[in-house]
């Protein structure tokens, strides 16, 4: 099979299109023919070696954890899926080796969920990691219909999905973004505020008593969070471990297929959408990673692997 691989840590230039063996399909596993994958910051951070202290990498490594595709075959004792099923997955395994920037990927079936019927392949590939991150943070924070929630980074891949999940739960949502993205946030159901100096004052103008919950999806926002958080408020971050010193929760997304199945239902209920910024062919995956590294892209960056 064709796959983008790297044999040493480095920048996107270390990626090359290679031929790799078809993945083995062990017990409890499914083999997925990949239609599309999405790019996440963790992909280039692993490739650069930033996560080497906590994650083993087996070279040559195929990057990519998000996947949308079709089940090709199933292993022994994998009863929940059949060949031909359309699926999505946040395919993070115990070590980095066989990722989704390839024609096929083998995954434990517990990581796999059925693809939302209302999404195309590219949009579906952008759902798993970002959607699960938002869902699990908001679930851990126990966001309720009576809550006012502040989301730092509302226009990003995680933040935009977080807004929609919280709105679907009935919460009032205030979200930060640059002014050019304020209409986008309004369309998702949030009240937009500009980030930067004076953020706390702008949030307090909308919520004079403070906000009940804060979800930080960008980092560098702790001072503003503490300034606007109501007494007994809850807060969490995916980008700043120092929140733990101030009563907050530092989180890392878990690859749970059942959670992803719930997100698929929200999509098919028309309560959750995925915005795609750019689509690249597999051979241009390095360019896709560079665009993600530059930041400031609204919506997901997708790598298209095989045709519809």
From TrEMBL:
It holds the Pfam family ADH_zinc_N_2. It comes from the Bacteria. Residues 10-303 form the Enoyl reductase (ER) domain. InterPro entries: ADH-like_N, Chloroplast_QOR, ER, GroES-like_sf, NAD(P)-bd_dom_sf. GO terms for molecular function: oxidoreductase activity. This is NADP-dependent oxidoreductase. The lineage of its organism: Bacteria, Bacillati, Actinomycetota, Actinomycetes, Micrococcales.
């Amino acid at each position: 099979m064709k796959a983008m691989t790297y044999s040493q840590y480095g920048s996107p230039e270390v990626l090359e299109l290679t031929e790799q063996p078809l993945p083995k399909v062990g017990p409890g596993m499914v083999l997925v023919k990949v239609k599309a994958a999405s790019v996440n910051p963790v992909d280039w951070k692993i490739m650069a070696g930033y996560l080497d202290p906590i994650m083993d990498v087996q070279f040559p490594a195929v990057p990519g954890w998000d996947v949308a595709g079709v089940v090709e075959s199933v292993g022994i004792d994998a009863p929940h899926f059949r060949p031909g099923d359309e699926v999505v997955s946040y395919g993070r395994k115990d070590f980095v080796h066989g990722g989704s920037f390839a024609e096929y990927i083998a995954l434990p079936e517990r990581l796999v969920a059925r693809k939302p019927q209302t999404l195309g392949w590219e949009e579906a590939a952008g759902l798993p990691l970002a959607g699960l991150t938002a869902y699990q943070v908001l679930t851990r924070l126990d966001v309720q219909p009576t809550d006012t929630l502040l989301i730092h980074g509302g226009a990003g891949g995680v933040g935009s999905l977080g807004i929609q999940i919280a709105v679907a739960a009935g919460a009032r949502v205030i979200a930060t973004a640059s002014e050019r993205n304020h209409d986008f946030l309004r369309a998702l159901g949030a009240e937009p505020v500009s980030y930067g100096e004076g953020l706390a004052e702008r949030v307090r103008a909308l919520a004079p008593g403070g906000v009940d919950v804060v979800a930080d999806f960008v980092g560098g926002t702790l001072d503003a969070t503490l300034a606007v958080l109501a007494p007994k408020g809850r807060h969490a971050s995916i980008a700043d471990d120092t929140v733990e010193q101030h009563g907050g929760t530092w989180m890392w997304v878990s690859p749970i297929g059942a959670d992803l199945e719930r997100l698929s239902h929200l999509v098919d209920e028309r309560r959750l959408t995925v915005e795609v910024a750019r689509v690249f062919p597999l051979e241009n995956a390095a360019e896709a990673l560079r665009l993600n590294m530059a930041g400031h892209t609204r919506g997901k960056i997708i790598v298209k692997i095989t045709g519809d």
